[in-house]
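Purpose: get a first structural picture of the assembly so the mutagenesis plan has something to point at.
Setup: three entries, given in the order below. No constraints added.
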Amino acid sequence: MSGKIQNMVRVTDPIERIAHWLLAGSCLFCLFTGLGIMFRSWEFIPELLGGLYAVKWMHIFSGVVFAFALAYAYVMWKKDCAFEPDDAKWIAQGGGYLWKTNNLPPVYKYNAGQKLFFWFVVVFGALIVLSGLVMWNPTAFPIAVARWSYALHALSALVIGSFFVVHLYLGTIGNPGTFQAMTTGWCSRAWCETHCPRWLAEREKGSSES
Amino acid sequence: MTNHYIDLKNSDVILIMGSNAAEHHPLAFKWIMRAKDAGARVIHVDPRYTRTSARCDYHVPLRSGTDIAFLGGMINYIITNKKYFRDYVVNYTNASFLVNPDFSFKDGLFSGYDAKKRSYNKETWTFQNDANGVPLKDPTLEHPQCVFQHLKRHYSRYTLEKVSSITGVSEENLLKVYEEYSATGAPDKAGTECYALGWTHHTTGSQIIRTMSIIQLLLGNMGIAGGGINALRGEPNVQGSTDHCILYGNLPGYLKMPTASLATLGQYLKKNTPTCNDPQSANYYQNYPNFFVSWLKSLYGNAATPENEFGYSWLPKLDDGKHYSQLHLFDRMYKGGVKGLFAYGTDPAVSSPNTNKVRKALEKLDWLVCANIFDNETASFWFGPGADPKQIKTEVFLLPAAATMEKEGSQSNSGRWVQWKYKAATPPGDAISCGDIQIRMMDAIKALYAKEGGPNAESILNLKWDYKDRQGNMDVLKVAKQINGHWEADVEVVDAGQKKLFKKGGLVPTFGMLRSDGTTSCGNWIMSGSFGEDGENKMARRGKEDPTGLGLYPNWSFAWPVNRRIIYNRASCDIYGRPYNPKKKVLEWTGDKWVGDVPDGPWPPMADKEKGKYPFIMKTDGVASLFGPAMAEGPFPEHYEPLEGPLAKNPLSSQLINPTIELFSSDVDQVANASEKFPYVCTTYSCTEHWCSGALTRWQAWLLEMQPELYVEIGEELARELEIANGSKVKVSSARGEVTCIAMVTKRFRPFIIEGKTVHQVGLPFNYGWLYPKDGSDSTNFLTPSVGDANTFCPEYKAFMVNVTRI
Amino acid sequence: MKKTEYIKLIDTTRCTACRGCQVACKQWNEMPASRTRNFGSYQNPPDLQWNTWTLIRFQEHVDKNGDFKWLFRKDGCMHCTEAACIKVCPSGALYHTEFGTVGINQKLCIGCKACISACPFDIPRFNQETEKVYKCDLCYDRLKGGQQPACVLSCPTSAITIGEREAMIDKAYRRLDQLGGKGVVYGDKFVGGTHVMYILSEDPAVYDKLPVKPRIPASVILWKNLFKPFTLIGMGAVAGMAALHYLIKGPHEVHEKKEGDE
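Result (structure tokens, whole complex):
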């Protein structure tokens, strides 16, 4: 075991992981129930969950969970996800995902793609939460606000849903070895050297100093 | 109504004045809309702009209580501009009759006024007769003593300028109405008038209606399709209750209540049976003894015999010169002169004027019996606001009564249609019909009298009282048949040359067969004929045939008298029986008979000097009265100010108020005329959503939701002056009391210019009481004065003075 | 089944605001009353409520000529052909009946309130207790039984009438002719034609709470015609691209440096 640990790096702490899964879980559940509400053709969802009325409340409840998880995630990750000049270079090269590149700037904790995803989730997550709150009690707001909330909610769902798929792919089969970051919290050193070399370097330097 | 609801559609000009038809007769308004669809003009003259005004061609506001001035101006306009229907006026009215030369009118008073008694000696209000006792006439209408010239002189004082200054209606608006309405003086045009409580609720109420009658006669609008004077009466049988003598001075069918001085039947009949020496006058009331004796027979049955004057002496009598209206009743009660009161289906603690007086008066009763479908402010007066239950000794009984839908029986609408209805539901709990309550109570009273005797016991013991079915409940058909009348003996009658034998116990087919010898009985002569000889209940008829195309529907229900749908209908034809308006033929004389509606008597038209009769058969002289000496105030209506008004002087004469109204003088009968303390004219009214005192409708949540509490309507100008915001709470007070309510600030009330000064008017509905809803305020009648019309004592709810203050 | 489209025509020039319709509606639909206060108007309740599906609006108006008019308008569901409420309803509670009217099946309603803000006429109302939305269904049960809606039956002046679509449109314009053109026919020119139409004595802009040009809100069109399909299309497309990426480029392997593979 110790030998293994020797080769592994702890990339996340449990609180981070819990927060992530709350966010991901509520988001996924909202997406799932939201689709069930929006599309009559997805009737199997309400049928599975005990009817549309129950689904409405599940959606609202998980939306509330999502809102708190999002708020926590924002506080937790906003520093790590702050953009830096090198991120532009990373983006210009598509992060090396789309064509072969050699001079990707070394990433600290999160690459520009991850940061972009984070900020999209924060912004559209906030929008979806706020519009959702309006939709919960539309008559308490001016009619224009109420009406546009529905459109905004749908738009945000579209954005978050699409990014969610990308995130799912890149976090699992697209980047083997990544998924553990949010399960055990341990990734291989090699993984870290690939995905967060600067962070790894800084961490190892810090630990050798101490 | 001289006509009927459906007939409103036949009109060319409808004047709605003294009525808020759309709000209070929403179903009747359908026919007004039909008339409008056919091109009729509909005019609303009313102090306030109402839902009726919204559907009329235009609305003309006038100050409350100035209707006679407004209409008097119209008479002046019609005569001055020769808009009257001359043929009609000459032949069918007393316009040509020569008046007693001693008759006079000076400064607001007619000849014969006694200021102490506040009444007239009417001996000069008569006609000049020829040697045969027939009134002298001048068909040219030029004789200075003829009625027409008197009329002309009387109303020449009602100039546009004067009328405008009194009523607050602009001269332009006056002319607009006068021109448009008087255009119906053409033979083929019909104008009708719809009034309701807006006219009757004045100290001059009867005379307002009289003024309009004069206009209708001048324009030839009486007796024709789309014409007449039409009182829009309350939904629940106001017509029926009046027909069956709800008023203290009447017996069923508008027979007269006897007075103490008429000790014998002979004296009574002599007093009440008119005689006429003109052979062409049918003088139908010469049959009065037939109606009256038959009524006595229905009351006392076999006990009524010629020997005992058919029980005339058992009848209670009014004291001569005394009145017994509701106003008098509560005045006497307030002074401690009344022991007990039955208040069935009525809520005087809300609905009678001067609520403070009424509620105090109730405290002085020994007992009070109420019968209602809900509790009301009268039955609960003893624990109401300001009442101390410990101090009140009145014993109150509240009997649960059946609602109208829970009873079978007849119901009469304003058009005199008596319609039979069936029971729709069984009354809940212990509730029974008021008729059953009466029957059980009278049974008990009779038993007590039989056992113990008492004053006037014969009256009670001889009362025919057999209206029960086998179960001991009221048998409405038995009652209805007794009202129609029975043969009390086998009688052979010669009818149209045919001999016919009627068997004892059979139904009398029509009041024309009633007799004064005790061989017929009839509970109400005008209703005679409501059953066929064969027992057919004509009130239950539902035939939809309309042979005239005028909407008379002769086979739908029964209309009194004798199923006549338009009364005075012979006046719709010229003296030869040819209809004035061939397009809307109510009647036509075909040479041997009348065709169309049931005519006012079978006689030929009056051009036939031998057999012909004048058209107004109920009038002694056979013609209609432009000169009407029966009225208390005088033969011609005159404008007097309301008891309380904004003016210190009547602009037309020195007589400020109606000189013949009775003034009550208790400590709570305060009056404040032209007072700075109460500067605003106030009127009261109902709303569509509630009925009368609201004693029934306030319990109905759907209705209460729409009109939840008392409000006062105030014009924007006055509200600005008093800094009253719409929807805020205000206090409205008069010399007699006050109420708090919500201010409804509206463009629908506008100030009037009266005698050069701005006068504001406000108005409140009278549908609320403290019992329910608890936060809906209390009776508007805290404000109104105990004063009434000089003929009917109908209270003046529609014009008095108040103040409005913010709270 | 053959479709017969009905139109209820409300002729405001015949309305006396007796409010028989308001009560008849509550009676037939067994809706309770609310405890109201007088707020300085005859209009009450002040607005439509979950238990008040039709309401006479009272409005004092002075027209261009300075003439005073008291306007009465019976407010309630207009039963649009292009009904925003049906478009946004997720549960199928709102639907078009065989009469062209907009029915409501409370059993299906989940109380999402989407219809409330979507409606261009501001008609549907939410009941906090039952968590359902309510509105006029033009007495669907009565129409099915061959009866007139309760409001129509109660109207004494024939201000409210109902009949087949073409005949009623024709009737509306004939009435307009009878009024000498002084009026406006409202309802046939938008949202595919409403199944409740007005004859108004004034310009529609004069009336409280009556949209001059009602239409399905742009937000609803954007939502339902664009965002909604794109939610699936977008997610599907992204998933497809990911799959394609996986197939073409393969997974993004980590760089091996020292320890070798294990």
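Chains B and A do not touch (no CB pair under 8 Å).
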